[in-house]
């Protein structure tokens, strides 16, 4: 099984097929510029998302992104996870199975948030809410 993750990507001398590496780099680029819903910074600038917590297996069509909320009681954790998931859904081929979750041990409601993000029906219902979709789109839009 070939898997590409931030840890492997950062290791010196790692050799991976170009297509596999390009999928990883594309994915990392996609999520790094997502805006935080409360701060005028990107998720990367706040260290909410980091390259080392992104895993891609192109042959198995899987993507896993762990994100770390800025504080253990962050009220925006679900919105941040939803924004990451929507960015991936809009950007990657449909063949990819996506797992967006909170980095273990970094949030008080980690289990509940992860359960919501893993539930396709709940994600779809959330995106039918026009106000919530507008907030997600603001997180995904480029800042001027």
Put the structure in a nutshell.
By secondary structure, the protein is α+β, with helices and mostly antiparallel strands. The chain has a single domain (4-140), classed as GMP Synthetase, Chain A, domain 3 (2-Layer Sandwich), CATH 3.30.300. The protein contains 6 helices and 4 strands.
Number of strands: 4
The helix-strand sequence is: EHHEEHEHHH
Task: Point out poorly predicted stretches.
Answer: 1-18
Residues in β-strands, percent: 5-15%
Count of the domains? 1
Question: How many strands, which pairing sense, and closed or not: the largest β-sheet?
Answer: 4 strands, mixed
Strand order of the largest sheet: 1-2-3-4
The first-to-last residue Cα distance is: 41 Å
Specify the oligomeric state: single chain
What percent of the residues sit in helical stretches (DSSP H or I)? 40-55%
CATH level 1 name: Alpha Beta
Tell me the overall shape.
globular
Radius of gyration: 15 Å
Structural class: alpha+beta
Under CATH, the homologous superfamily reads Fe-S cluster assembly (FSCA)
CATH topology: GMP Synthetase, Chain A, domain 3
- Helical stretch tally: 6
InterPro entries: FSCA_dom_sf, MIP18, MIP18-like
Family: Belongs to the MIP18 family.
Keywords: Chromosome partition
Protein name: Cytosolic iron-sulfur assembly component 2B
Describe the structure.
The protein has 144 residues and is of the alpha+beta class. The protein has one domain: GMP Synthetase, Chain A, domain 3, CATH 3.30.300. The chain has six helices and four strands; from the N terminus they run E-H-H-E-E-H-E-H-H-H. Strands 1-2-3-4 form a four-stranded mixed beta sheet. A hairpin with a 4-residue loop joins strand 2 (54-57) and strand 3. Helix 3 (77-91) runs parallel beside helix 4. It is globular. The relative contact order is 0.16.
């Amino acid at each position: 099984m070939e898997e590409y993750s931030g840890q492997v990507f950062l290791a010196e001398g790692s050799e991976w097929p170009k297509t596999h590496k390009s999928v990883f780099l594309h994915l990392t680029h996609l999520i790094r510029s997502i805006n935080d819903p409360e701060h005028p910074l990107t998720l990367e600038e706040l260290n909410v998302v980091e390259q080392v917590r992104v895993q891609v297996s192109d042959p198995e069509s899987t993507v896993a992104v762990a994100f770390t909320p800025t504080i253990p009681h962050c009220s925006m954790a679900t919105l941040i996870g939803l924004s990451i998931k929507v960015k991936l859904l809009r950007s990657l081929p449909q063949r990819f199975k996506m797992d967006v979750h909170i980095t273990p041990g970094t949030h008080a409601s980690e289990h509940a948030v992860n359960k919501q993000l893993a539930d396709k029906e709940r994600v779809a219902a959330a995106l039918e809410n026009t106000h919530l979709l507008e907030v997600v789109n603001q997180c995904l839009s480029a800042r001027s």
